Amino acid sequence: MLKSVLLASAMLVSAPALAQDMPQSTPADPAPAQTMPATPDTAAPSSKTDATVADSTATTQPAPASPAQIAEVVDAEFPTYDKDADGEITEAEFGQWMVALRSATDPATDAQSAEVQTWVGQAFASADTDQSEKVSKAELTTFLSQGAS
Where is the signal peptide (predicted)? Predict the structure, then answer.
């Protein structure tokens, strides 16, 4: 009995995951409903289906990056923001990088706003673990890895 319940639970949990992995097939022939005006009875189920698909797409978020992926990005991008090429970035350079990262996820980010400036200051203080007023590659990788987990 318990095995049956566990098997049924596993199937219920895995069905949505398997459905996401399957490619969507497109019909070979155009649907007749496209050429004829839809009646209210036939339009209602499709609008519910569209809303359900939109909701599931909107709530699906990408998986967080692994520490190895974060280290690769830091290694690749660090020279871009290390303007004086001393191997460490200042608070201003760090701020430019953090605003660029935040703008990628939230295009409405205003780099000059007090909220963003406060956020950058707090992030820099957290990232600068040795209190040297500069952030090294290792410190930045550790800081960004903490945010991803």
Answer: 1-19
